[in-house]
Amino acid sequence: MNEEFIVYVWRYKLFSDFNFITTNSLEIDIFSFGDRNYDSGPDFFNAKIRIGRQLWAGNVEIHINSSDWYKHKHQNDNAYNNVILHVVYNHDMEVEVKGNILPVLELKNYISEELIENYFALSSPDKSFLFCSKTYNFKADFEYNNWIDGLFVQRLERKVASVNNQLEFSTYHWEQVLFRSISRSFGLKLNGEAFAHLSASFNFITLQKQCSDRINLEALFFGQAGFLEIEYDDDYHIKLREEYSFIKQKFSLNSINNSQFKFFRTRPSNFPTIRISQLAGLYYKQPKLFSKIIELRNVGDIKDLFKIRASKYWNTHYTFRKETKSIERKLTDKFIELIILNSIIPVRFAYFKSINNQSKLEETIEFAESLKREKNSVISEFMKFGWKLTSAKESQALLELKNYYCDNKQCLRCLIGKRVLERNSNESIS
Questions:
Q1: Percentage helix, strand, coil, to 5, in the chain?
Q2: Using CA atoms, how far apart are residues 10 and 62, in angstroms rounded to an integer?
Q3: Is the dihedral of CA 377, 381, 386, 387 positive or negative?
Q4: Where are the domains of the chain?
Q5: Is the pLDDT of residue 123 over 70?
Q6: The whole model's pTM is what?
Q7: Residues 103, 344: Cα–Cα separation, whole Å
Q8: Residues 6+ apart with CB under 8 A from 183
Q9: DSSP annotation of 32
Q10: 265: pLDDT confidence band, cut at 50, 70 and 90?
Q11: How far apart are CA 430 and CA 420, in angstroms?
Q12: Confidence band (pLDDT; 50, 70, 90) for 103?
């Protein structure tokens, strides 16, 4: 038995019988179960309860056993002096508060066996993708749709918090923050950290001074990434080295460790060399990208900003020196949507939140609704259980569900977990 489960039962009033009686045989009438307290102190504030003939207003504390009161040392904390009812699963001893015996409601006989079985079914060890996979039957409805909206916003706010941290570090230079976020996105999961380190290795003003010349911009990026340390008998590489030597001296730059960039188990189109050239191409074409993304009002126009390609050298190369079959290295629509989802939307949302522009915040969320759902192993597993996802907003919500609820066994805070607990034995979840 888990204390959080008892708190859950009390909060959502999941009792088989409401004819409550204290352990010393006084009738209990509950007018208000109280407000959940997530900070230190009693579990519920502002309850209103009649115990016997006396009406009380105060707090409720919940434990598995009555003796947990002393185990948690509440007798030494004045915050618990206003507790009017001790709600426990098992009453194993009396508790005194300011010299008086605290009234106790023992829930052992007020919680159905079925509810307890459903709880243990959720909380028992299971190697399945979802703990509730054997007991749940997916069905969307109004409550579910609101829940998905909340999960998406929760995940988005987590990303916005990261943006805000970067803003403080950059003294609120929005263009720089966007550049660093986009750089990480260009590296995807495998090379995201390496690209983040690359973008942080020079001041954004240095980048801006190179934006009028693409070869200079590529020299800056490849040089800072450490790809120009070794000399190759290659005209393009030689040109980059020459330009970088000048830029490095002028701006007192130091390159990062090139070993951070991973090529192994990476599709050639995602090789760091290709992505670095494409990133340079983006800022050659859009040196004031942040200004553009806050002006544009739909995903289609934002996508147009990213219709860029690597320089011609990379049409016949994946790495320096080694030639390949010629193919144009442009950003795919799928890759652009990932950038919009992981960088454009969070930065845009953070900006409009900072100026309290509600209509633009809603517009930004609509961007996610117009993007196609992501394709990854987690989303594929969810779809096996009946989820019919159409947008990136939904797939982002389910990633939040898996990472912060399912993987941490927070079933009691999850809508699906709630439905599993509350269903009747002959019902499916609806």
A1: 55, 10, 35
A2: 9
A3: negative
A4: 3-111, 170-370
A5: no
A6: 0.78
A7: 56
A8: 195, 196, 198, 199, 279
A9: E
A10: confident
A11: 10
A12: very high
